[in-house]
């Protein structure tokens, strides 16, 4: 952790959102924005997503922190899902006004943390149950009990849909969960590290991270991507719709990124997953036409800015293709990112430093 400079020597502009300020040294992920690469503990995302199951990627990220055996982790996740299901009555008894996201947070808050297993395992293993249960409750249905023998992705889809999921859909969801596992020091991850640095319980750090993710500037774009695709409707409408949106100074959802100055590597990982689902889905074909039209329009309208496809564009298309309701995109993102948040908390607490940045006072002086 870098040492906070003397207030008299501060050079970072707080209005810039701490951009360029180093707040942690990490061995978890490296977001190379200039070259369009994402590395998770020494492996490029392309060598993980679609090649290993979510549980294997989690174990890779958690290296040296928890179990070293994949079968042990899978077994522990299964036991945790069963334990999490016992918390569902608390979620069912809550106010009808709670949405899926809030009800999922409630489930995590009520989840007992056993001292017999690492907190990261309990928290990460429980979130799929809370997500699925919250969705079923929102639909006026009873939550579906987990099957501890299944993988995380397969059981999550089964609990969401109430039926045995298609194997290709399971593989697509698994690919997505691996793709979003960790991504540098974004707002929710930084939140988790700040809370973890106080030596608060990991559950509190993850609850804080979930809260940070709820903001539309962080985790809310995939749903609007589908709204854009629906509004365009047909390939022949794309050019005019996009041109009109740019004239109105509107942001094209799914394009551009705070860090990447080239194409988001996760977009191609998810696009490859769509190809494995087949090409018969008309919305997938429409999305590809829209992507081409949008990139051409952006190059023409903003030639001085590097605006390319980001992860949110093909996240929306892939999750829609496997039947995930768009209202679940942010809760699902939180579920997949939770092991990453836990990893950052473990790394921060091993460091033992309280995160305490400086601020520059710009208010009125005392009389």
What this model shows, in words?
The protein starts with 28 loop residues before the first strand and ends in a 16-residue tail after the last helix. The protein has 367 residues and is an all-alpha fold. It has helices at residues 54-61, 70-85, 88-92, 100-110, 119-138, 152-161, 167-179, 187-197, 202-213, 222-232, 238-247, 265-276, 282-301, 311-321, 329-351; strands at residues 29-32, 37-40, 43-44. Residues 1-10 have low confidence and may be disordered. β2 and β3 form a beta hairpin. The chain contains 15 helices and 3 strands. It is globular and about 60 Å long. A 3-stranded antiparallel β-sheet has the order 1-2-3, with no helix packed on it.
Rg over C-alpha atoms, rounded to the nearest angstrom: 21 Å
The overall pLDDT average reads 90
Assembly state of the chains shown: single chain
Q: Which structural category do the helix and sheet elements fall into?
A: mainly alpha
Q: Which characteristics define this entry?
A:
single chain, 367 residues, mainly alpha, 3-stranded antiparallel β-sheet, disordered N terminus
Question: How is this fold's topology laid out?
Answer:
Elements: E1 29-32, E2 37-40, E3 43-44, H1 54-61, H2 70-85, H3 88-92, H4 100-110, H5 119-138, H6 152-161, H7 167-179, H8 187-197, H9 202-213, H10 222-232, H11 238-247, H12 265-276, H13 282-301, H14 311-321, H15 329-351
Antiparallel strand pairs: 1-2, 2-3
């Amino acid at each position: 952790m870098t040492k906070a400079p003397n207030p008299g020597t501060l050079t970072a502009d707080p209005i810039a959102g701490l951009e360029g300020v180093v707040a942690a040294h990490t061995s978890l992920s490296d977001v190379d924005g200039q070259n369009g690469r994402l590395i998770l503990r020494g492996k490029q995302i392309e060598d993980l997503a679609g090649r290993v199951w979510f549980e294997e990627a989690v174990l890779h990220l958690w290296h040296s922190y928890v179990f070293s055996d994949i079968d042990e982790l899978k077994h522990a996740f299964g036991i945790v899902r069963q334990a999490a299901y016992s918390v569902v009555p608390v979620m069912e008894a809550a106010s009808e006004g709670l949405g899926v996201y809030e009800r999922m947070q409630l489930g995590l808050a009520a989840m007992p943390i056993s001292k017999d297993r690492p907190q990261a395992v309990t928290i990460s293993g429980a979130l799929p149950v809370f997500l699925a249960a919250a969705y079923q409750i929102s639909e006026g249905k009873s939550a579906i009990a987990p099957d501890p023998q299944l993988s995380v992705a397969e059981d999550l889809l089964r609990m969401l849909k109430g039926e045995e999921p298609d194997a290709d859909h399971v593989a697509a969801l698994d690919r997505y969960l691996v793709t979003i596992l960790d991504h540098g020091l974004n707002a929710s991850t930084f939140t988790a590290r700040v809370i973890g640095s106080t030596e608060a319980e990991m559950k509190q750090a993850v609850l804080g991270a979930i809260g940070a993710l709820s903001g539309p500037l962080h985790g809310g774009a995939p749903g609007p991507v589908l709204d854009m695709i629906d509004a365009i409707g047909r390939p022949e409408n794309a050019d005019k719709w996009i041109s009109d949106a740019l004239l109105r100074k509107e942001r094209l959802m799914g394009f551009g990124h705070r860090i990447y100055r080239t194409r988001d590597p996760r977009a191609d990982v998810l696009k490859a997953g769509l190809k494995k689902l087949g090409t018969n889905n008309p919305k997938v074909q429409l999305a590809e036409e829209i992507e081409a039209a949008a990139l051409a329009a952006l190059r023409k309208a903003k030639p001085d800015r590097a605006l390319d496809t980001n992860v949110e564009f093909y996240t929306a298309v892939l999750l829609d293709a496997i039947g995930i309701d768009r209202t679940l995109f942010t809760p699902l993102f939180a579920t997949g990112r939770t092991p990453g948040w836990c990893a950052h908390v473990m790394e921060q607490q091993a460091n033992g430093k309280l995160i305490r940045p400086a601020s520059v006072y710009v208010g009125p002086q005392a009389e």
